[in-house]
């Protein structure tokens, strides 16, 4: 049996009703009133595509009449649906675009009680070329916040979690705000190894495939016509890790990508390049190490060496933070299960390797 209760005003302007306590089968009814300034098509989506996502995500009956949404279900489910609509109103208020992906991520955050979706999905990192770069998960927001608060940050997690992309967005923003004088992006070109000499072209042409993902990200965030000028002036530098040796990097935002392919010695060399007014972000995936002959990864070792040192932060992302195609998260989890199941078996012959983007 459904019961209704008085409608109240919520802090974000949407009015909601408190689910009442009932006897017998636990079923309550709640009502959300969407403020007049937000068209229902914004909240429900074109052809109700957002409403359909919400209906599929919850075991509750949702009815819409005008700008009033009535939710019937268990107290837990009804409460979550009410909170979701309140968060969606807050996202609309902040100017964030309400998409099926944003709604699905909001549902996941609310179910895990991991934070307010509006706090995560409305955080603008960088606006460029008609699009805004924002974190899409709670862990991504924690990663971005850590970059603001700490001098050295390690972003460790699987492919597709935005480790490098978000770090580069923060670097470009810091440059625009004149917090740093230059951006330095670097990667180890481990797979070239001794074969570099046999590849055609200059040294930069030989290592270009390993640095190309960094250039691609830059083109997403800056006017492509300005990139050659900034690189010629030394304001932006994209170089292999070996070029960092012997330097002191002051007033710079420095990103080391693919750090799982550094040796412990290379990692120490890189971290000791830190100069005054500089910030370092190190990104990598310890499950995708390409070092030859079972060589130890500097990214694995550094976690034990530097853990607990003030102003150094380790941020760990998981498959839940993948922002690529939904299948990528499933693929990562499947490989993790396989690795655990075969951990004690002889190592299988690995497939070919090549440069990978994050």
TrEMBL record:
Major subcellular location class: cytoplasm
Keywords: ATP-binding, Cytoplasm, Nucleotide-binding
Molecular function (Gene Ontology), one example: ATP binding
One Pfam family matching this protein: PhoH
Biased composition (Polar residues): 1-10
PANTHER family documented for this protein: PHOH-LIKE PROTEIN, PROTEIN PHOH
Protein name: PhoH-like protein
């Amino acid at each position: 049996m459904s019961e209704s209760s008085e409608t109240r005003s919520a802090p974000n302007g949407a009015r909601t009703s408190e689910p009442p306590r009932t006897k017998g089968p636990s079923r309550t009814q709640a009502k959300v009133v969407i403020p007049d300034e937000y068209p229902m098509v914004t909240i429900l989506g074109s052809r109700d595509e957002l409403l359909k996502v919400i209906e599929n995500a919850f075991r509750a009956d949702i009815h819409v009449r005008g700008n009033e949404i009535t939710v019937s279900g268990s107290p837990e489910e009804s409460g979550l649906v009410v909170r979701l609509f309140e968060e969606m109103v807050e996202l609309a208020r902040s100017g964030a675009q309400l998409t099926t992906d944003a709604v699905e991520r909001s549902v996941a955050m609310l179910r895990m009680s991991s934070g307010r979706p509006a706090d995560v999905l409305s955080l603008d990192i960088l606006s460029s070329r008609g699009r805004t770069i924002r974190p899409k998960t709670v862990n991504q927001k924690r990663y971005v916040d850590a970059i603001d608060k700490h001098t050295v940050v390690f972003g460790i997690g699987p492919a597709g979690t935005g480790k490098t992309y978000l770090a580069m967005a923060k670097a470009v923003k810091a440059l625009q705000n004149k917090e740093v004088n230059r951006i330095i992006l670097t990667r180890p070109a481990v797979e070239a190894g001794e074969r570099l000499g046999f590849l055609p072209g200059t040294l930069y042409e030989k290592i270009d495939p390993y640095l190309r993902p960094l250039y691609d990200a830059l083109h997403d965030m800056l006017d492509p016509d300005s990139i050659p000028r900034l690189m010629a002036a030394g304001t932006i530098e994209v170089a292999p890790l070996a070029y960092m040796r012997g330097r002191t990097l002051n007033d710079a935002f420095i990103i080391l990508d693919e750090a799982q392919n550094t040796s412990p010695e290379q990692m120490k060399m890189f971290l000791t390049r830190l100069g005054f007014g500089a910030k370092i972000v190190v990104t990598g995936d310890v499950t995708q190490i390409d070092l030859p002959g079972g060589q130890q990864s500097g990214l694995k070792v550094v976690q034990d060496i530097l853990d607990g040192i003030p102003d150094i932060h380790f941020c760990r992302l998981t498959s839940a933070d993948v922002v690529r195609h939904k299948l990528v998260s499933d693929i990562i989890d499947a490989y993790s299960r396989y690795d655990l199941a075969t951990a004690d078996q002889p190592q299988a012959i690995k497939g070919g390797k090549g440069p990978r983007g994050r």
